[in-house]
Design brief:
By secondary structure, the protein is mainly alpha-helical. The protein has 14 helices and two strands; from the N terminus they run αββααααααααααααα.
Length: 272
């Protein structure tokens, strides 16, 4: 289904779907069996689909095992994550709390995921310091970047650019060579037209750091071009987006960006 169509949007809303692509599996009565969120290699998709057909690694499967007394970390985390995927935060919170209590090792990925979820849950329910406290207390966690972006998206949604910028500043200090963070910051600054020269510096750093990943680099160079466009440095923006096109010549978005920059340059010349 096309997520932009009204029918698809209703299904998304009814089943509390978040993110694309999103494969939802239901029985003949419309009850959810499982879902697959995000991209996977084709072979992994096939394995997951076969598992779902066999009711393996589904919420129902984990719940049955848990009721039978199989309360190891994988089962409890599996239940919690399935509820989280369904947007059932209260049940996810219950099982993540059990997970952390029964398996308190902070180096465990399961424990880190549970601790992060509880901090996120608290933040989204009004505790504005919950994620900051989590970052401070769990600096080695696998979910530090997620915690920062949760705050960034929250403040962006609330149209609080000052708070959003504070989080980005802290995130850039903690993750100074993370190309995803550098790119996100630069793109967002272009959107809200703040700190454009700093954004340009950060995204150009990301371009260099992503040299061994051409696919990512093409998108980062596009961000560089967008920032240059916002600075009205149209020739440089056109030159930059041509580099993205050279890496990914079939990308229509990059070609549309180039045309946008060219038209802006023409308009700027005509207004002089």
């Amino acid at each position: 289904m096309d997520a932009n169509q009204e029918e698809a949007r209703k299904v998304f809303d009814d089943y509390n779907c978040k993110g694309l692509p999103h494969l939802l599996f239901v029985d003949d009565k419309g009850n959810e069996v499982d879902r697959i969120i995000g991209y996977l290699p084709p072979s992994e998709y096939l394995v997951r689909i076969q598992d779902i057909r066999n009711n393996k690694h589904t919420l129902d499967d984990y719940a049955i095992q848990y009721k039978e007394g199989k309360a190891d970390a994988e089962i409890i985390a599996g239940i919690a994550m399935k509820y989280e995927d369904r947007g059932d935060s209260d049940n996810a919170k219950e099982f993540y709390s059990i997970l952390i209590k029964d398996y308190p090792d902070p180096s465990s990925a399961y424990n880190q995921r549970g601790t992060y979820f509880l901090a996120e849950y608290a933040f989204e329910n009004g505790d504005q310091m919950a994620l900051n406290n989590y970052i401070t207390s769990s600096p080695e966690s696998l979910f530090i970047e997620d915690a920062y972006f949760t705050m960034v998206y929250h403040y962006a949604d609330k149209e609080m650019p000052g708070e959003e910028l504070k989080v980005y500043t802290q995130m850039l200090a903690d993750l100074p060579e993370n190309t995803g963070v550098l790119n996100s910051y630069a793109w967002r600054m272009a959107e809200i037209e703040l700190n454009l020269l700093d954004a340009l510096e950060k995204v150009q750093k990301a371009v260099v750091l992503s040299a061994n990943d051409p696919g990512s680099q093409a998108n980062i160079i596009d961000t560089e071009a967008e920032v240059l466009w916002k600075l009205k440095r149209f020739d440089e923006a056109i030159k930059a987006i041509k580099r993205s096109i050279a890496i990914d010549p079939e990308n229509q978005y990059f070609r549309d960006q180039k045309e946008k920059f060219i038209q802006s340059k023409k308009g700027d010349v005509q207004s002089v």
